[in-house]
Specification:
Elements (H helix, E strand, L loop, with lengths): L1 E3 L13 H10 L2 E7 L6 H10 L3 E5 L11 H14 L5 E10 L10 H18 L4 E6 L2 H10 L5 E4 L5 H9 L2 E5 L9 H9 L5 E3 L21 H12 L3 H15 L8
Parallel strand pairs: 1-2, 2-3, 3-4, 4-5, 5-6, 6-7, 7-8
Length: about 260
């Protein structure tokens, strides 16, 4: 049994194939696919898609790359949507939220400050409803950690983690699991492969970020949640342990990071 903790199944690249893509993954043992929102425009879409797919689940949040188009009303809408969402067993977390300091335009005023504001306010929503978060972490580890120490949430998943060992430990200490996917399958990704090999297995979860971040054997073609078992096998190879060990551990870790997932089994 496998869990894809981060998959944008609602993306245009899957248009007309959403349920077939989820079904293929399910046949390969991917028991859950977590579909994060990126903004108010797709809150309803991810919820409906999770309901349509037997292995679907979802999160609601405003992605940092979509903060430039967002406004305060979006934060109010998100907060107002949570009580009803909590009645849906497939709703798991606040996400995808975070900070992106890779894209130059997002690192300068006023967008940098706006990103931080939206991140802080969404952490408060997660804290107030005792929910985990799905974090977008791109060249922003220390700033994310700064706010996480001040606004404590239930933990969650740090998506596509690529920080230092010291930063990884700080996320772990704050109750987070670290997401690994297609990037670690490239032999040139030395830091990510070291992290995947040397961090405690209890800290790792698997993800695809599909349709993006395709593994080495698929790149540059569209990624999909059906790749999770092979990504898991790659992690097993890096750590020199049986594939079954990786499947069991990463599934257990996902259930710890996203407690509402357990009710779906």
């Amino acid at each position: 049994m496998w869990i894809d903790t981060h998959c944008h199944l609602d993306a245009a690249e899957f248009s007309g194939e959403h349920e077939a893509v989820a079904g293929e993954a399910r046949q390969l043992g991917v028991s859950r696919i977590v579909i994060p929102a990126i903004g108010r425009a797709n809150f309803g879409t991810v919820a409906a898609l999770a309901a349509a797919c037997p292995n679907g689940a979802y999160a609601l949040g405003i992605h940092p790359m979509f903060v430039p188009q967002a406004d305060e009303a979006d934060l109010l809408l998100l907060r107002a949507a949570i009580p009803a969402a909590l009645l849906d067993a497939r709703f798991l977390a606040i996400g995808e939220i975070g900070l992106d300091f890779f894209i130059p335009a997002l690192t300068v005023s006023p967008l940098r400050e706006k990103q931080e504001h939206f991140y802080i306010e969404q952490l408060k929503i997660a804290r107030d409803f005792d929910l985990p978060v799905l974090l977008h972490v791109r060249r922003s580890q220390d700033q994310l950690l700064k706010h996480l120490r001040r606004i404590r949430t239930r933990g969650g998943c740090a998506h596509a983690f690529n920080g230092s060992f010291q930063q990884a430990q700080q996320f772990i200490d704050l109750g987070f699991k670290l997401g690994f996917g297609g990037a670690m399958t490239f032999t040139r990704a030395l830091q990510i492969r070291r992290l995947a090999t040397e961090l405690p297995l209890s800290a790792l979860v698997l993800e695809t970020d599909a349709p993006d971040l395709s593994p080495a054997w698929l790149h540059p073609a569209r990624n999909s949640p059906a790749q999770i078992p092979q990504i898991g096998a790659a992690l097993a190879g890096l750590r020199a342990v049986p594939v079954e060990t990786i499947a069991a551990a990463t599934t257990a870790n996902a259930l710890v990071a996203l407690p509402r997932l357990a009710a779906l089994y």
